[in-house]
User: Fold these one by one.
Assistant:
Number 1:
Amino acid sequence: MKENILIVEDEFIVANDLKIKLTKAGYSVCGIAASVKEAEQLIEKHKPTWVLLDIFLLNDSKGTDLAPQLAAKNIGFIYISANTNQSVLETAKATQPYGFLVKPFREKDLMIMLDIALQKHQYNLQIQQQREQIFRMQLEGLAHLTGPVNQKIGRLPSIVQSFIPFDLLRVVLPPRRDDDHFGFARTGYEEYQTYIKNELAAICGISGNDWTSNKISFLELDGGTISNGIEYRKCLLDDICEKRLNTQFRLVSRMSLNLRLKNGDHFALVFYSKNEDSYTENHLNLLRRSSPSLESMMQLLTDNQHPVIAEPRDQSARRSQAAKVSAEIPKFDGIIGKSTALLSVLDQINLVATSPTSVLITGESGTGKERVAQCIHKMSPRGKSPLVIVNCAALPANLIESELFGHEKGAFTGAIDRRVGKFEQASGGTIFLDEIGELPLDAQVKLLRVLQEMEFERVGSNKSIKVDVRVIAATNRNLEKEVSEGRFRLDLYYRLNVFPIFIPPLRERKEDIGILAKNFVEKFSLKTGRPVTGISAAALTQLKNYHWPGNIRELEHLIERQVLIKTEGLIENIALPQHQTEKNNQIDRQEGNIPLKTMEEMEADYIVHVLKNCQGRIGGPGGAAEILGMPPSTLHSRIKKLGIKREFSAD
Ligand SMILES: Nc1ncnc2c1ncn2[C@@H]1O[C@H](COP(=O)(O)OP(=O)(O)OP(=O)(O)O)[C@@H](O)[C@H]1O
């Protein structure tokens, strides 16, 4: 007998029909619930392994509200709903389902989706178990390391970070100990500022009594708590320590767990994050399941005769250590930055790289999607096999199939030779489908089939070719919106969106601008042989005040130009692109100030002008490519290279 499924659906006829189909296919259906409340009771009673979940249910309850409970219990679920408007899809997506079927659907589609979902769930559970085992082994290994205790405890944050993300971690030990508190604040990738004893209280200006009562509140806590969003803000109202920590570190969510040493004394782990809704029951459950390892690690560390960090430390040395943040993180080949937003992208890369899971990278043009894809590939076990990059926007409509899957000699006019397609070229490695949102609907159908079966035929052949390819896709479009407006297939979206990574625009991570700019100065002064030494503080402020529509690509090009103009010394004044606002240009024109533009800026302006006149159409008769006298694929790559925003082009 296959999985035990619960159907949560308020239309009885639909639910019953589903039950008949599932039973016929060999599944066991343990019940039908019409509301979230009924579902909760049936879950308690029958312990289903899977749930088919409608979104709008009886008594105004919603399937999306049941989803977090299912995730916490490791019960896989697929949505079945007739509603695909954007906000419903976004809420559904946030709950990380295994699939979404739009009613009415064919029996065959349901069975295929269930089959894929079951495989994926099984795989995820295995990975989760392996990861938990690694977590426990690393914790236990920590206590048994040789060397001073402060060195061992200093490795704790790096171990924990890959399993439970945090920006500040507090370890609260029984108050009578000399070393009754550690804090670790994240300052970079695998870089932490360590606080011992009451240092954290001191930098936040918290008095001794308030600090002690805050620590005791965690030690007396029963079990674990998660405080995201409003819950976290409520904690700030009646606890001055929490408020000060929040101000100092700009935190927005918290999770804590109380654990016990052998002698009955309690200790607590308190995690804080700068990201909203960072913590889930899954995190807390992982900690609970790992509590024997956490307790024995803490036991061995606290059994030590010496206070944990005994020697008075040189504050200035410690400060300079924290300030020394290398620009490039060797593990993430060429990715630069240390903003919280970028660090959480790096954590996700680290998490997904070693598995064969499909990844969907989203973000504005120039934010580094391709860079991230390359990094995932290099860090994966396929790193030495090929990474084949396909720019879906530049594929000529009539040749998409042959580009992706290849063709036989004579398959169509012009097919003078056999051609190996991109999927075959990527065999054993990774295929990066860039600009996936630009793929026409009929090509999406074919791609979906290949992604499901990893099997295809070359155009003009009926012999199936099987490949083993990892898929990474990227887009700067809002795919949920594309789905709701019928331009992107929902089933393909779910197939690709197994592990989503969003890269925030540069204007939302201004902390990275300085470090990136300095790095680009170094790179281009080396490349051109011009001894440009850096950027002045005033110029840096200029950069930080600009809104970077072309993101990192725009910053890189801008610095390259500055190095060419400046030729040596410090860049003190930066000529920022004039197309920042139409208003600026109008004023300039009125006042007779003709802004000095580079050739590239003028080219970009001209392409935008032509695109506007063609309503953004690139290909076809009267399209921008024809007017500019270049093939559409060349125009697409010029648009990309010059950082022209997508909104100017429609195809
Ligand atoms: N974190 C980073 N550190 C250093 N360089 C970066 C970083 N992110 C991006 N870059 C550089 O910025 C440029 C643009 O990056 P990339 O091509 O990966 O962006 P993209 O999001 O794929 O753009 P598009 O959507 O237009 O395809 C590249 O030269 C890349 O090397």
Number 2:
Amino acid sequence: MKIIIGSKNPTKITAVKNSFQHLESEFISLDVQSGVSEQPFSDEETIKGAINRAKGALEQGNGDIGIGLEGGVHETSHGLLLCNWGALATLDMEPIVAGGARFLLPEEVAVRLRAGEELGPVMEDYAKKKNVSKQEGAVGVFTNGMVNRAEVFTHVMKLLVGQFTYQQKLKAH
Ligand SMILES: O=P(O)(O)OP(=O)(O)OP(=O)(O)OC[C@H]1O[C@@H](n2cnc3c(O)ncnc32)[C@H](O)[C@@H]1O
């Protein structure tokens, strides 16, 4: 099966490879437009970005499966949540969607995002290191390394691949 990943972010590529281990697969990663803001600011917008990336990956990579994984934030009355969403697209089905673990960002980070900054650069500044979004992620920083970004996306991917194989099973009957 030819699986096209709509991102070159290593945390996302690792997650996709982790979750298709049981299937004979070829992986291709492409930079695909999310079609939403650089910093999605709601579940709705983040889901849309994931679906656009999955569909774009499928089309641009001419694959069997397109995967879109998207990080965003979502405002609540308790504070700003970090959220992660994923979508799996095929040629013959509506995209499958799943979301990952979420937690409240510290207020000093949240205020900067509300003022229009992007989480990637804000985290580099906050953690005093480069490429946080390509390594442990904000989740890795704020959980003291207990959960990293690739693990969060791996869980999203398992929800997607699990639903995909379930639907394949239903079709076969
Ligand atoms: O290369 P792509 O696939 O675009 O990966 P990305 O990490 O840059 O882009 P996302 O669309 O997933 O995330 C939107 C923005 O939020 C940032 N972001 C999301 N989750 C993050 C995390 O856990 N740690 C640091 N930055 C994060 C990210 O760097 C972007 O600036």
Number 3:
Amino acid sequence: MALLPVAEALKHILESADTLETEDVSLRHALGRTLARSIEARVDNPPFDASAMDGYAVRAEDVSEVPVTLKLIGEAGAGQPFSGTVAKGQTVRIFTGAAMPSGADSVVIQENVTADGAAVTFREAADRDDNVRPKGQDFTKGRALFEKGQRLTARDILLAAAAGHGTLPVVRKPIVALLATGDELVEPGTPLGPGQISASNSFGLAAVVEAAGGEARLLGIARDTLDSLDDAIRQADGADILVTIGGASVGDYDLVRPALENAGAKLAFYKIAMRPGKPLFFGSRTAGKNQQHCLGLPGNPVASLICSRVFLVPLLGRLLGRDVPLEAIDAVLGDALPANGPREHYMRARLDLTTAPPRAVPFKNQDSGMITALQCADCLIVVPIDAPAQPAGSPVKVLKLDI
Ligand SMILES: Nc1nc2c(c(=O)[nH]1)N[C@H]1C(S)=C(S)[C@@H](COP(=O)(O)OP(=O)(O)OC[C@H]3O[C@@H](n4cnc5c(N)ncnc54)[C@H](O)[C@@H]3O)O[C@H]1N2
Ligand code: MOO
């Protein structure tokens, strides 16, 4: 069977998914969530003309020539407006954040004033609007603040709060069930017996899912039997995506696809023209009340993490209503590359941004069990299918690693 090109596999995955439902969350839980609607300001900011300094509110024309002494008639504190009006020859003690008293149009900082009871002497002249933040200078009611599909940052949450929003409409978090499979796997931190390795992928993938705005549910480790896989797959009911890890290839114990098919999954494709990542598959099944996407990732840790960025993160993006492309950069090869085979090769590399164009230096060992090479890579050099050998300095397309 011909291997499916990466772009076609991704297109298929994206076309299979729609944006999830909307829910309102409090600002305290809004960080990293994706807006389901565009958002406008509900109030002006500041909501009133406000003092930017501690000092004295005056009519600027009264202090155009100094020294001059004005009569103190009251005080305006933050949240404690002065209810009277400042008339000619008068001043009001004012503090940062307080509303400007009517009649006053300027604030003189207290360092430039000598107060003696009700007699306040100004040593520095002031202009209109000095140290005043005018109503709506930051934003006015109705101003567009955020776009639908925007992922909320700390700064966004600050702005939303200032703009009168206590909650925000966001897209429900996609739930991703992660199922490790294999008799050799033990939970990380457990001493390794003969032939055993740590089930590292689930933890790397859970981090990818959560950084991308999803909620990861670890289903643990299924053993290489149909019974164990069936049990584990049942635990995934209710998840929007079931990601299986390993058991996808052609070995006698690669039982994940048959187990998923037993559980009602219809596979749309299996095996892609990608290195690492060849045995990846994708399909869907009815699981509980919802239609569940099933993504089978290869067991090799590097393959599983890279494939998660290339396919799972965009799928999560689609469920959340936003695009999450990998940033592509034009670079030159820092080393010669041999001819490529029938799979698009995503080579782990260091990116030197101090040169123009940037230089991408591929790691010597591109084995998909080389977790250290993935961990210290900055980018992936994408080598097209059947590309000829290329000398150092050849132009290449590079994807910046953001996981
Ligand atoms: N005869 C062939 N053998 C293989 C082929 C092939 O085409 N013909 N493809 C190879 C490729 S490419 C890959 S990738 C692997 C992927 O196979 P599986 O998805 O079935 O993965 P496993 O065999 O279960 O595991 C591969 C490797 O990864 C380790 N592993 C598995 N799960 C985890 C986990 N959760 N955390 C950490 N490491 C994990 C596992 O122990 C193996 O070392 O197949 C090639 N073989
Ligand atoms: O293509 Mo397999 O995914 O690592 O080696």
